[in-house]
Amino acid sequence: MIPPEDRRTLLRIAEQAVACALRGETYEPETPGEGALLERRGAFVTLERNSLLRGCIGRIASDEPLYALIPLMARDAAFRDPRFPPVTEEELPQLSFEISALGPARTIADPEEIRLGIDGLIVRHGSRTGLLLPQVATTFGWTKRQFLEETCEKAGLAPAMWKETATVEAFEAEVWRS
């Protein structure tokens, strides 16, 4: 579990990374001495403006510690999410930042193993991978089956591929926001 102070630090790092990039500056967070900021795990940064998605980028796993990964994902969410134009300086005060720190994935054999609102999903088939964070299913009010189908579609697969030859994994995530 990431302590509240480290959560606040990671949010500050994400916000500063985007603010510095908008000014054309490089942002290098200070290296922490110990603790959760040094954990090596996957993470996603989600940006919202007026409660609407504005960008979301992350990694399933990472060799980078969280304090170094979060600014990279924040910049990518702000400027490289192909679904949106780059964030502007005028938008910055209106943005809220959300961080999802991923736990280890486990293979799912039966949809009943999925815990809506707790588990995120990863569907893999060949070179295709789709991931949806735990909060997505509850935001849209999906059933377990809909969550699986939407994750397949995110991977560019047919919605029913989860029943066929795709590998389905679930993971927990610690999620917090500014």
Shape: globular
User: How large is the count of helical segments?
Assistant: 4
Query: What is the level-2 CATH architecture name of the largest domain?
Result: 2-Layer Sandwich
Instruction: Assess the beta-strand content as a share of residues.
Output: 25-35%
Question: Low-confidence spans: pLDDT under 50, at least 5 residues?
Answer: none
Distance between the termini: 18 Å
Assembly state (oligomeric): single chain
Radius of gyration: 17 Å
List keywords for this structure.
178 residues, 27% strand, 7-stranded antiparallel beta sheet, Glycoprotein, Type 4 Pilin, Dna Ligase, domain 1, alpha+beta, globular, single chain, 4 helices, 2 domains
How would you describe this protein?
The structure is a single chain. With 178 residues, the chain is an alpha+beta fold. 29% of the residues lie in helices and 27% in strands. It has four helices and seven strands, in the order αββαββββααβ. Strands 1, 2, 3, 4, 5, 6 and 7 form a seven-stranded antiparallel beta sheet that branches. The longest helix has 19 residues, at 4-22. The protein is globular and about 50 Å long. The model has no long low-confidence stretch (mean pLDDT 96).
Please provide a brief summary of the model.
By secondary structure, this protein is α+β, with helices and mostly antiparallel strands. 29% of the residues lie in helices and 27% in strands.
Helix-strand layout with pairing:
Blueprint: H1 4-22, E1 43-49, E2 52-59, H2 66-79, E3 95-102, E4 106-107, E5 119-125, E6 128-132, H3 134-140, H4 144-154, E7 167-177
Antiparallel strand pairs: 1-2, 1-3, 3-7, 4-7, 5-6, 5-7
Helix pairs in contact: 1-2
